Amino acid sequence: MGDFWKHIIKPKGPWARWLIFITLLGIVIAGVTGNLAIVSQYLDTEALTFRAGDFQVSAWGVLRALLSLVLIFWITAAVADAVQYRVRKLGKLHPTTRTLVSKILQIAIYVIAFLIALDVLGLNLTTLTVFSGAVGIGVGFGLQTIASNFISGLILLLERSVDIDDLIELPDGVTGFVRKSSARYTLLETLDGKEVLVPNEDFITNRVTNWTLSTSKARVEIKIGVAYGCDLELAHDLILQAATEHAMCMSDPAPQCFLRNFGDNSIDFTLTFWVEDIVAGRWRPQSDVMFAIWHKFRDNGIEIPFPQRDLHIKNPAALREAINAQ
What we know:
Blueprint (H helix, E strand, L loop, with lengths): L1 H8 L4 H19 L4 H7 L5 E4 L2 E4 H30 L6 H26 L7 H14 L2 H16 L7 E3 L5 E7 L3 E6 L4 E5 H6 L3 E2 L7 E9 L5 H13 L11 E7 L4 E9 L7 H17 L16 H10 L1
Antiparallel strand pairs: 1-2, 3-4, 3-7, 4-5, 5-6, 8-10, 9-10
């Protein structure tokens, strides 16, 4: 039933739109020209009139108001769709600017339609002061989150801090591409194909990482440990060579390798290199470079150590006696 009224107010498909439009227009014209006088005589009677103090409404008034409201909402939906279609065709505008302009125009169109509907229903527009006060109380209590997400969405569109196809990382570790920006939420498509609806407010109140805001470059960091006694200069050169030889590694800035620490079990190096397009991925070049380092170390006798512990027995004789006693 809900879908039925939804399609009546905003019909889908060109034939349905034209059919409903022509039908409603014919009814309105018939009413204006007086051809619905017979219907009016039967419905606009004392028996079919509801009274509450000074307020009264007849069945004919309700029918006329419903038909007028459906026509107003249909025209509003058609105009809003046409405006949205035209705005999307403006190739000179940035995608976020097109989205912002479209939303503002749609809001303006529906506000105008709302005012027209009030006038058709015969409501005094001065009552909007009371209505706006009630809406303010509702926003302050029940609609606070919805209003916050809507305003946050407009801020995001104005600042262009989050754009379509940007790679976003949230504080909880969720990483994905922005696929849709709406008034209430932003749709993220994660790297494993999940679709996550993120409230717009989260992008304003939390610290969010946008990997592609101003550039798609990204740095990859790899930590490598070598055994004591290895040729450190050779290990340093092999690590740099493994990164330089990879196709996705940028030459400017060039890869860098630093000796960072003399650890308990190893001498630690840190390799950093840049990839030009993070959208293409960081894990693949990191994995390839690590494989290349492993092969180069193995071919050149560079050992990658692992933690070891030496156990020193202070009284071996007592240990042997305890074992024999068992």
